[in-house]
Amino acid sequence: MSQVCVLVEHRQGEIQEISYEMIGKGRQLAEALGTECYAIVLGADARGIIEKVASYVPGVYSIEDPQLAEYNAPAYQAAMSALIQEKRPQLVLIGHTASGMEFAPRLSAELRWPLASDCIDLAVNEGCVEATRKMYSDKVNARIDFKAAPHCLATIRAGSFSSELAPAHTAEVITVASPLTTEISARRFVRLLASEVGDVDITQADLLLSVGRGLGGPEYLPEVEALAKQLGAAVSCSRPVVDKNWLPKERQVGTSGKKVKPKVYIALGISGAFQHVAGMKNAGTIIAINKDPKAPIFGIADYGIVGDMFEIMPALSKILTSA
Amino acid sequence: MDIIVCVKRVPETAEADIIIDSSGKDIQTDHLAFGINEWDDYAVEEAVRIKEAHGGTVTVVSLGNAEVQPVLRRTLAMGADEALLLNDPVFTGGDSYAIAKTLHAALKDKKFDLLLTGVQAGDDGYGQVGPMLGELFQLPSASMVTRIEVADEKITVTRELEGGMGENCELTLPSVLSIQTGINEPRYVSIMGLRKAKSKTLSEVGADALPISGDDLGASGALTEVASLYLPPVEKTAEMLEGDTETVSAKMMDILKKKGVVG
Ligand SMILES: Cc1cc2nc3c(=O)[nH]c(=O)nc-3n(C[C@H](O)[C@H](O)[C@H](O)COP(=O)(O)OP(=O)(O)OC[C@H]3O[C@@H](n4cnc5c(N)ncnc54)[C@H](O)[C@@H]3O)c2cc1C
Ligand SMILES: Nc1ncnc2c1ncn2[C@@H]1O[C@H](COP(=O)(O)O)[C@@H](O)[C@H]1O
To answer: What pLDDT score does B116 carry?
Structure first.
C-alpha cells in the first residue's frame, strides 16, 4: 500500500498553517486512492510537533537529529530522501515555501521522482494523480501530468486548501533512523533575521492606498502620498515597488511582506499575483483600479474600476478638496 | 570569482491578453513582448557586481532559440564577458528537469565558483531549475537569495523567508544560488553599451556538441508534462464601477464613506 505523505513545516516550535492545508488535501487524495495520509515530521526533538498533528493523521513518520534543529536544505533533503526511499509513498506533499522551494527540486532530481511545483490543486483521475498550477502571471491554469510515475512530489501554494480539519485519528508514530551520520559542512544555518520595522505600521491602518508597478516610477509617489493624506490612508505597496527602492520594505504587502487587514484596501496598478493577494485578501473591502480588465486582482476585489490610476487619482483628489 | 548565470527569455504577461493556442498546451506568443526574465536580470547584475569587486569572469548561458540572442547581447552590455546559447529544436518541449540536465551537460566541464539562476521564470513560475542544477552538480545551493557576501572559499547569503523574515547561511564554494528580485538595482543598458559589447563572444551550440544522450533532452527527458492549459473559472468577480472618470471616482468615494473610512 503506497501512501500519501505530507511534510509538516514548522519553525520555532510553531506549525505553519500550510501543513494543515496539505494534510486536509492529503487525506482527501488518500481516500480517493484507497490509501492513507501520513505526516512526516523532521526535527531535533519532534515530539511537540508530532503531538499537534497526531489527531489528524493515522500515522506519523519522524526523523530526529540534532542537524534538523533548524531548517537547513541539505539536512532536510537527506532526511526526506532516506525516508521516502524507505517508505515509498506514491505522493509527497511539501509546502511551496522558502524551504520547500529549495529542497523539493533537488529531491526530484536526486530520485528522479517527478515534481509539480506551486500547485493549487491535486486530483485523482482514473487512479492517477494530476496536479493543477498557475502560469503566465496567474492568468492560466495548467494541468500537470506525472507521466504515470509510481512516486511523485508536489509543492503546494499556501492558502490553496482549507486548514480547518476535523480530528479523526490517533496517529501511530514510526521513527525512521537518521541518515545524517556525518556533519554537513557544505551549507550551514547561521541565524534567523527578524522582519524590519519602520515609521508606518501598515498592519494598523483602517484604510490602505496600495500602489504596484503601475506606478511607473518614484516621481509619482508624491501624488499618491498627497491623496493618501487627503483620504486619511496609509500608503502600502506590492513587491516590485520595494525591489526598485521606491518605498521601504516595511510597506510591502504579501507573502514576503506584511499581512494586512484594513477596513478598505485600495489597489492601484497591482495585477493581483497570489503572493500579493495572500497578504491582503482578508481586508474588509477591496477596491481595485487597473487598466487591464483581465487583471487577476478583479477576481478577488469587491469593487473594480477599469482605468488609468493617473486619471482616477486627480478626480478623487478633486472630490475631496471640494468637499 | 568565475561566475555563470543562467538566463531565460520570457514573454511579458502581466498586462497582456493571454490566448491559449490550438495545441491546448501552450499560449499564443506572436502578440507578446519578450525580454529577459526579471529574476535573471537581477542575477546578471549581481554577477557583474561581484566581478567588479573581486575580479574574475561572468559567463551567461541560455537555452532557447535564435531570438534569445538580443537578450544575451544585453547581458554582455551589462558587463558579462561571454555568452552561450544552447539552441536546438530537440531541447524544447521539456520540463525544468530536462532543461537543468541540458544546462548541466553544457556546463559540466567549465570551471566556476558561483552558478546563479533566478528564483523562478516569470512565464511558467516553476522555480526548479536552480536547485536541480545544484543537485546535478552535487554542489550546495540556496534559493530566495537577497544578499551575497563573498569571503575566501565560502560565502554568506541572506535568504528571504515568509512574512518579511530572513535567514543567514554559509555555503562553501563553488555553489549554486537562485537570486530573488530586489537584491540590487539592475543597471540600465544604453545603445552605446550595446554597441561596445558587439565584439564580445556569443557562441551557439546544438545537441551534437553536448555530452548528453538524446533521451535526456526535451520532452523525452522530462519527468512531467503539461497535459492542458485552460483559463481559470472566475470564482468571484468584483462589482465593476462604470462610467467616465468623474462618475467612477464619485462612486468610489461613496463606497469609502459607506464603509466609514472617509468622513
Ligand atoms: C517568493 C516570492 C515572494 C513574493 N512575495 C511578494 C509579496 O510579498 N508581495 C508582492 O506584492 N509580490 C510578491 N512577489 C511578486 C509577485 O509574484 C508579483 O510579481 C508582484 O506582486 C507583482 O506586482 P504588481 O502587481 O505591482 O506588478 P505587475 O504584476 O507588473 O502588475 C502591474 C499592474 O499595473 C497595471 N497598470 C499599469 N499601469 C497602470 C495605470 N497607469 N493605471 C492602472 N493600472 C496600471 C497593469 O495592468 C498590471 O496589472 C513574490 C514573488 C516571489 C517569487
Ligand atoms: N531555458 C533556460 N535557459 C537558461 N536558464 C533557464 C532556462 N529556464 C530556466 N532557467 C533558469 O532557471 C531559473 C528558474 O526557472 P524555472 O525553474 O523555469 O522557474 C530561471 O530564473 C533561469 O535562471
So the answer is: 98
Residues of B in contact with A311 (CB under 8 A): 245
pLDDT value for B237: 84
pLDDT of B37-47, one tens digit each? 999 999 999 99
Chain B partners of A294 at a C-beta cutoff of 8 Å? Answer: 17-18
Long-range contacts of A33-36 (CB under 8 A, 24+ apart): A33/A4, A33/A90, A33/A91, A33/A124, A33/A127, A33/A129, A35/A1, A35/A2, A35/A3, A35/A4, A35/A90, A36/A1, A36/A3, A36/A4
Choose among B160, B171, B224: nearest Cβ to A98.
Answer: B160
Q: What pLDDT, on the 0 to 100 scale, is given for residue B123?
A: 95
B223-246 pLDDT per residue, tens:
999 999 999 887 678 999 999 999
| Residue of B63, B6, B8 whose CA lies nearest to B37 | B8
- Interchain CB contact of B209 with A (< 8 Å): no
Instruction: Give yes or no for B176 touching A (CB within 8 A).
Output: no
